[in-house]
Amino acid sequence: MTFRFNRDTWRHLKDIVMSVAALACVALALIPLGSILIEAGSRGLQAISPGFFALTTGEGGIGNAIQGTLILIALTSLISLPVGVLTGIYLSEFGKNRVGFAIRFFVEVMTQIPSIIVGIFAYSVILELGLLHVVDTRLVFSTMTGVIALSTIMVPFVARAAEEALRLVPAATRESALALGIPQYRTILRVVLPSASSALLTGALLGVARVGGETAPLLMTAFGSPFGFSGLDHPIESLPHTIYVFALSPSTAQNQAAWGASLILVLIMLAISITSRVIVRLRSVSG
In the chain, fewer beta carbons within 10 Å around the N or the C end? Predict the structure, then answer.
């Protein structure tokens, strides 16, 4: 008896092959991620103790680095998220013209600029303003300059993500709201933005994760400090900078502390992601 492949059999076979290939690609993508988490966890747990969080970096701990990272992320998000989302709204809803094309091109270019160049830019701008006596020269190495550098990185990233998220909202949804006589600005605020809230949140989290792990711009702006937060016009420590300094140290204890700081940074990003997802889920259930 001869078995012959018909069209349905070929389709089923192709479906199985593609499914297996997709799962294999997922497994390959998870291998480096899993190895990083396992390595950071196994090495970082050895350095974690109550004193590790209480002491400052000058004393071998990371207490001030955690504080500085949270402050930098909060201030950067406070500036970048509104500006980035508003830019994305303009590009998505009103950007089908030459001005929108120019802004979109500029945003795409900005997302590709190396972060060290952004750090040089922020450092140079504040230094020039300081030499011209427009601002205090203490701001050259300060929390504010670090926020400026990180915001320069985050704004175009969030703007691009917000534009793509808003484009996912079907045109019929907008047209239905406009057909009911709802003004366009209220359609955007009450219909379009809530419909794309999950994608917008994902873009915001990606932006936070991007700046939360940046080291290069902070080397030339926030600079680092062995003390806690002293003000916007003073240097500030951060986990990425602490990891960089501790990893290059000849001290074995500081090398171990670098792994501990790496693990804490990963956990902070994970906590932000989980909290935001829970908030969105609760809002969708209550809505």
Answer: N
